[in-house]
Amino acid sequence: MTKDDPLLDVRDLRSGYGASLVLDGLSFSMGAEAVAIVGRNGMGKTTLCDTLVGFVPQSGGEIRLAGRRLDGLAPETIAIAGLAYVPQGRRLFPSLTVDEHLAMLARRARGRRWTPEAVYELFPRLAQRRHHGGAELSGGEQQMLAVGRALLLNAPLVVMDEPSEGLAPAIVDVLVDAVHQLVAENVAVLVVEQNLRAAVRMADRQLVMVSGRIEAEFTGEELLDRPDLQHRYLGVGATTGEYA
């Protein structure tokens, strides 16, 4: 891999569930930047995330991370290779405290940029709640913990599936700031978002997904300034920012 090669390169990707093909020839690439995947419901956005991290097996195409093919690798191998995942729904352990969630990855993080202490600096609210169980946290606190847990892998790429879902605007602000900080530190962030305004705030590159493929690419400014594009590709009104 040279400095001009993409960090993540996805070519002609196909995957789905049983005989049902969801991703059908999907291709895109990205470097150490923030990129958002947007699209109507049912277009395959979460299937893309689950395929990238190995939860859904691919039936064709290539996924390369820093030049290494990830095709067919187990999820834990993909994580070690450098792809961290913040799943939709957070998937925390209700009975484990914040400290205990982070402690599971603390040994691997020792001496690297992201440690539990660094996560607490990024999200001070988590430090205040460090002895509370996952089920005792608010939705925003749970999302911060899900992001912090992923950061402890110290991966060059973080994939976030619907990170702003159900969150108050103030918490979305915190997540937007975290994404910008990661990119400033040369970490790539791939965001799948249902909230257009949140997606645009997190990433300038907006990839529009239609029927299992990347159909178009716009800047965030283009999408916000063009209600016709929002309606055509997303079924969204300029005043709401939410998909139909």
TrEMBL record:
Domain ABC transporter: 8-236
Keywords linked to the UniProt accession: Amino-acid transport, ATP-binding, Nucleotide-binding, Transport
SUPFAM superfamilies: P-loop containing nucleoside triphosphate hydrolases
Similarity field: Belongs to the ABC transporter superfamily.
Recorded superkingdom: Bacteria
Keyword Nucleus belongs to the record: no
Protein name listed in UniProt: Amino acid/amide ABC transporter ATP-binding protein 2, HAAT family
GO MF term set: ATP binding; ATP hydrolysis activity; branched-chain amino acid transmembrane transporter activity
Provenance organism: Jiangella alba
PROSITE patterns the record matches: ABC_TRANSPORTER_1, ABC_TRANSPORTER_2
Entry-linked Pfam families: ABC_tran (PF00005)
Single Gene Ontology BP annotation: L-amino acid transport
Entry coiled-coil feature ranges: none
Record InterPro entries: AAA+_ATPase (IPR003593), ABC_transporter-like_ATP-bd (IPR003439), ABC_transporter-like_CS (IPR017871), BCAA_Transport_ATP-bd_LivF (IPR052156), P-loop_NTPase (IPR027417)
Keyword 4Fe-4S attached: no
